[in-house]
Amino acid sequence: MNSQITFHTIREAAWLLGVSRAAVSRAIRTRELRATRCRSGLRVSSTELARLLGSRQTGGAA
To answer: pTM of the full predicted structure?
Structure first.
């Protein structure tokens, strides 16, 4: 089993979530979505995206 975490740009995260880049940035600002600061900007982990998608399916807000 591969347990390596991948990180996505804001643009990639928005595409994967099916929302705008502004919505992803807003979710990071409001701490609904956790991001990691990298040298070239913010990155969102694949596990964080999975957590957010799971909460959407169970009725949580995005």
So the answer is: 0.78
